[in-house]
Model the fold of this input.
Amino acid sequence: MAILIDERTRVVVQGITGNQGRFHARLMVEYGTRVVAGVSPGKGGTEVDGIPVYDTVQEAVDRHGASATVIFVPAPFARDACLEALDAGLGVVVAITEGIPVHDAMEIMTFAQARNAVVVGPNTFGLIAPGKCKLGIMPARAYAPGPVGVVARSGTLSYEIAAALTQAGIGQSTVVGLGGDRVVGLTFVDVLRRFEADPGTAAVVMVGEIGGTAEEEAAEFIKGMSRPVVAYLAGRSAPPGKRMGHAGAIIERGRGTFESKVRALTEAGTLVARLPWEITELVRQSLAKAHGSKASRGPAAP
Amino acid sequence: MAILIDERTRVVVQGITGNQGRFHARLMVEYGTRVVAGVSPGKGGTEVDGIPVYDTVQEAVDRHGASATVIFVPAPFARDACLEALDAGLGVVVAITEGIPVHDAMEIMTFAQARNAVVVGPNTFGLIAPGKCKLGIMPARAYAPGPVGVVARSGTLSYEIAAALTQAGIGQSTVVGLGGDRVVGLTFVDVLRRFEADPGTAAVVMVGEIGGTAEEEAAEFIKGMSRPVVAYLAGRSAPPGKRMGHAGAIIERGRGTFESKVRALTEAGTLVARLPWEITELVRQSLAKAHGSKASRGPAAP
Amino acid sequence: MKLYEYLAKQAFAEAGIPVPPGRVVTTAEEAALVCREVGPVALKAQVLAGGRGKAGGIAFADWPHEAEARVAAMLGKTIHGHRVDRVLVEKKLTVQAELYLGIAVEGAARKPVVIASNQGGVNIEEVPEKAIVRRLVDPLWGFRPYRAREVARRLGLTGREAGQVADVLHRLWGVFRRYDAELTEINPLVLTPEGPVAADGRLNVDDYALFRHPELPVVEEGSELERRARAMGLAYVQLDGDIAVMANGAGITMATLDILQELGGRPANFLDAGGGAGVEPMTRAMEMLLEQKPRVVLVNIFGGITRCDDVARAVVAARQNCGTEVPLVIRLVGTNEAEGLAILRENGLDAYTAMQEAAARAVALAGGPR
Amino acid sequence: MKLYEYLAKQAFAEAGIPVPPGRVVTTAEEAALVCREVGPVALKAQVLAGGRGKAGGIAFADWPHEAEARVAAMLGKTIHGHRVDRVLVEKKLTVQAELYLGIAVEGAARKPVVIASNQGGVNIEEVPEKAIVRRLVDPLWGFRPYRAREVARRLGLTGREAGQVADVLHRLWGVFRRYDAELTEINPLVLTPEGPVAADGRLNVDDYALFRHPELPVVEEGSELERRARAMGLAYVQLDGDIAVMANGAGITMATLDILQELGGRPANFLDAGGGAGVEPMTRAMEMLLEQKPRVVLVNIFGGITRCDDVARAVVAARQNCGTEVPLVIRLVGTNEAEGLAILRENGLDAYTAMQEAAARAVALAGGPR
Done:
């Protein structure tokens, strides 16, 4: 089991004729993802690695019953691509594109809400249900199927953590990248709620950062969760007021400090790893405990 | 009984400090309408004929639980006034203002739909539930309480018809002016549906015009109505392609001709008066028949 | 307000829609100059009448002297009652295909509607419905580029051409919004080897929104009389009968015309004095009617907001100002009815209460039913 | 991109928001001229640093010679590391009251938020929450005039003043949208006898949206080094330690800094080479780090999109180009790991697999934990 996507997800790749789109479309197909069509205005009627290309998302939906999309369209055109996907009724829109103006992102999210659809990103590595479906640019080797849900703001850090879990024999149900921009479609809470409801997820790893208050809000939600949550937070050493790459990774106005996040999460019963390599062991302990305490009522870790 | 409004309707008058607003607010109060507040930006804290004036509609709602509004605000500011009323949660917005740009009207109607609210007008005389509540600029003497619902595109023509009914001893449940502009909030069908569901309405008079296809759509609806409908249509003698005052009263592209409307209505079982003074007699016949045939199942004409 | 073709095309060009090279001229010499610059040209009389082609309002010329001669013949000519003062001289296009693109206000849906067809160059009403693509637009969301691409696809376009046409349609949406248009059309959009070009266009601006567009020139439409009425804030339409009519409100005015016709009379005009008009504008309106020397004038007033005494004062004043003997038939009921009647009687006039009687009397005075 | 106060005010003025009369100057003589024109003036150093008032970046002058002297003293001065090149010289205002008006992107709500307070002139973070009015805005509907009026009412304003402030706030929304702002503020909005005036303002434009604003001047922020890095498309932040760090991805880079600190080391910088960077930019990035002569450089790469062989090539090239002896600690795993290690070994370098070991080694080389 997985959240948001699975082996039946029928995927469009928007911007498939660009370098990045073409490259990752191939990797997704190799992983087993059902990439049913590509979209690239003006290139309709052609093919990319055997994938049919259309001018519009609507055509891809009409002909192939697509249900999700991965967007590699350059930033100036990404708003239109996202709105097109949402308007065509796609339920999961994964916006890989970096550099989408924040005003555009706000419009996209408003439309997604009206359409009751999920936007992952922008500026995300995507999401993967190991062994089933990969919608994004993450390195496939890092993942294996299993009972742990992972949700992260940041890409490479989450690859590192997923790879460590995999190496330790702990697979993942789904790994979701929220995206590094200030305005993104999903919050930690949105994803935690889905993991909590997913029979295939027995524990969750949450990879947060300084800045914003998403982790504090997650802590509130975690209080009511049955699944154990292990957290790691980056940015402990970051000086206040400095923007560290991500739009979100900035401490401003005394909010979103490392300490406030750790405190909130700890109070919610989350195990907070001080160093990344501690995560695997904490997850192992959590799974063992969850398996013990929930054998009668919850999902079993395989 | 009446549709849309009744004696409990709590009314705001927007633009109450203008000449028209002040004049008609007084007439509405005299009629017995519960005008609870006026709104006029910059004039908050003052009074007009004992009616408290506020700067914002929200304040009028907060303090007086207003539920409807009548708008006399000049056309350049009318869009904002309508959106303000809708955003403050008012369920019935009567836009008397003439000359609201059609693009503004389209925005207003889109917002009203999102808010599940009714806009009457723009460019309407308003609506009146005789003896209970008057939201508009119609001459009160023309009306009396009774079992006939009246819905009209045009103001003066409907005053004339209502006055004739009243003189003949036939009162009205509600009289609704759709408004003369190309884009208005209510269609004939919207109002007919409400009359059909209103226990206080036994028959309906529909006053239409050439142009558009609202009368043809009404005819379709009328086929399924239990209440009898009497119609009068203006514009038989209008030459094609000439705009006769109202934005709607223009025959274009072979649609919305007098003949097509009469045919559609007649086929739907509507009695179509050829001259305005025939209406009263047709209504009398309809009421008598309705009374006879529906004594056991429908509302009784008093 | 309907804009002349050349103004519509200026708006298109500003929005980045390709239009043929050329410009509007007021003299034959200028036409020759343009032809020298751009080569073979189309010459198009700038009038708001439809069907100008058949009426000699469109011509072509390959050489400057030819352009000069044809424009000389065109200027000053009258097409369907409109004098030709300006001619648009534009490069003749190499036509591969012609499309129709239009955006209008769809009253029933309360939304803008985009209309497109790959059968352009003819009246869109004559195109079969199945060859037309229609798309309602949420006025808040607007018509986004991807929707334009979807329309282009439905027109059967592909590749670069689809993208170019989608781009034009998206820009046309910008024109529709920017100018508060009731209707804007490109017909035809000509597909040339160099890309699509708006060969002819319309841009009708919502009269109610003109206050937002002080930059627009005033384009006067209709007859002299209709323009005068509009300047007074009155809705006036010239008809071909002999019974002049003044009423208050569009519906009652239309009904009055219908009644006259039903009784065998022939109305001379539609004149809606408006609900709640004051003495002054009503006087002007009456004067305008009297000046036309109809056989009879019918005044049909149901006083709601309009006060009967104001009407009576206007009628009396206009009659005095014009010193005319045209017979007046007045029907006057409603607000301040007694005061109105008193004023009329002081001035030797009387009034009916029933519309029916007044209309019948007017028809009789005009010579009876025909 | 943060705009200087005078640029923010230009944007305000274009949008119809009243700003004090005056202009930005680059010489003391000009300051005297402005003072002669407008009377007593405020003199404000145009630097992007906060707290410029306490650092001597704000002064007042009643007379031209005074303005000249004070601006002369201000120009060339350094405020919190920023050299003063321009001074905004503006008419001194008669202050009746000071408000705060701001519009920002609220990430959690994914919407713009309007923030207002009648306690202006101070840092908004210091204003108690109950004195602050907040309103989320639907980005499609926009912030309509009536909502601005409602905010003005909540600030306790009435009558003409409420209308004027609402108008300013509504126009500020226009600035926010027009400039793709992340944040725009008027603080304080001074209520004067002649109406409200934006006495100080901020306008931070979304870097991602700069492609839509070619009209804006480029305002460079940060240290020389940070600017250089930005020009290369890298995210670089100068820190005060001695272990230079390069990693790929903001999260892993932050984590690397955290780990070093946890182990007792002191990172010299944040440098995110990005996911999937090529050899060339990574080489430039490495060179930049080496030039700073840190005690040690730690390269921490988990190759996902980034290829380990590219990283190895970049490290080798940078080392050769700089001819430096700064010790390198490399951790390299992931895509093309074997190829990367081979390249390193050919050049006498080695790499760790575990982040933990690499970090510990870097701290040891920098002199051990402190």
